[in-house]
Protein: ABC transporter substrate-binding protein
Amino acid sequence: MRKIFKVALFLMLISSFSFSKEVILKDVLDREVKLNLPVKRIALGFYYTDFLAVGGVKALDKVVGFSKAVWTDWTPASWELYSKTLPKLNSIADFGEVEVGTFSVEKVLSLKPDLLILAAWQYQVLEFDLEPIVEANIPIIVLDYNKEKVELHAKSTELLGVITGEEKRAKELIDFYKNTANEVASRVEKAQLPKPKIYIEFGNKGPNETGFTYGKDMWGALIDLAGGENIAAPFVKQWAPINPEQVLISKPDVIMIAGRETELKKNQEAMVMGFNIDKKEALKRLEAYKNRPGWSALPAIKDNRLYGLYMGASRTLADAAMIQYIAKALYPSLFEDIDPIQTYINFHKNYLPVIPEGTFGIQAK
Structure:
């Protein structure tokens, strides 16, 4: 009996060692991070839908805490749909949000995670506050979908594949993103057409106040991938408003106003787009931008090239569809066979547990 017990114990020890291995990964900041696989307890700072797209719904079982407000407050309609579809989300601990100063190192430590995942912008704000987590030997992996660089999307997705044990699915997603971006670039390059000028503004303040526009990050980087000339690039590094006079001087051929669901009831004039947003309401708010001083003389307004797009469809693998959307607005004749909004919906059908309904891209009348 004792012999059988020893054999069983030996097999259990062998099994535990065989299923646990230490790897050294390089994250998007080129930091070397030691990680024990498989990861069993994850604290997730951002990129929730990308985490689910790569790891699948089962990967949620490993999440012991997350920065809840970035999801619930920024895209509440998305949160409502996901939390109804995946009730487990409601019971996961919240360790606070970086931008409003509620991120709690103590809360993260209390969850005893094997790994903390942060967005690059979160890490840059928190770096010196994370020392207790480092001293507790909790690895920190930094991802970056915000900069909208194909290589960073790919690297972040590859890392999520290793973390969740879904390397094959991660590669499939990387191929999807790269192929989408490459096809757009190839069509634009072959056509050798003049680069149209484009201006994208976050419309959370409404037409009476200038919102953020984008230089090299987020929508600015997506403009580059779509082959447009971003009029804000010389004046904005990441995101900030530009002088309204500069828009008039630059005379954009295309204008896009990004919106999200949050402003639907908060601001009656702000642009709204996204989950459960009625198209008529979005169009009404978009049309109001035509009344800005001097805009009626702009080529984009004269030629009916004013668009609305969903803010929540950026900083994610799903923004492959937004590369198509911007490219089609810039070069309509080159992308007649492409339906970017269908690409966005199909991404969810293929990789996520919800199918979005609402308004994700519109053109003014």
The chain has two domains: 16-165, 192-363. The two ends are 83 Å apart (CA to CA). The domain at 192-363 is CATH 3.40.50.1980 (Rossmann fold).
